[in-house]
Amino acid sequence: MKHTEVQHVATISELHRNLELAKPLHPLVSLIRLDDLDFSDYEELVRFSYGFYTVSLKRGLRNKVRYGHRSYDFDEGVLALVKPHQVMAMQAHPDDNITGWMLVFHPDFLSGYPLSEKIGKYGFFSYDVDEALHLSDREEQLLLNLMQQLHEEYSDRIDVFSQDVMISQLDLLLSHVNRFYNRQFLTRKKNNTDVLSQLDAFFDNYFDGGEAYSKGLPAVGRLAEHLSVSPSYLNDLITSLTGASSTC
What we know:
alpha+beta; five-stranded mixed β-sheet; 10 strands; five-stranded antiparallel β-sheet; 2 domains; Jelly Rolls; 41% helix; 248 residues; 8 helices
């Protein structure tokens, strides 16, 4: 099927129905094994958004997932994190052999926990798809272990302690993701330094051309668009490499 309009999936229960899965054990959180899904409905382009967070660890997707006009091949262990209402598009390939996990959780699941505020400071939920996290074998295995632990807790009988435990496990998982992204900024230092060099050249032209006097300093969004990165990624990159965040 082909959808030209964005298909919005508001709840996790609705997501399970769309994927022809059993009802979620908890209405605000679920762990889905990608190995168990039939992606044949996605062989033509489908655009969609979710009303909840997603953390997807994928392998074997030959074709591409897109944000807008950008795309990324999930051919190796790659982690992608998406915040609620961010529009994505997917087109699967008949020969795909997709494996991995998709963790989904509603913002209300975090209500009353410190993670509810902490998660807003994680810029990687607003990164573009081509800024996804490339995992080393060790990092991938660590995250897979954490996903498995979450799945075991989720699959056990839900009790008064379940949410506390799952929130703690989720907090730990996201803390590792934050650490691994910082590592990626460092290991890709040459590429990232090239981005900063382009940024320096932009400012040189901007000031030399007199735009700074007529228009003031450019917004972060304009800088990010010029550099073909997301605003959140640009801010975190500058913070990682220079110790100072972008304030333009």
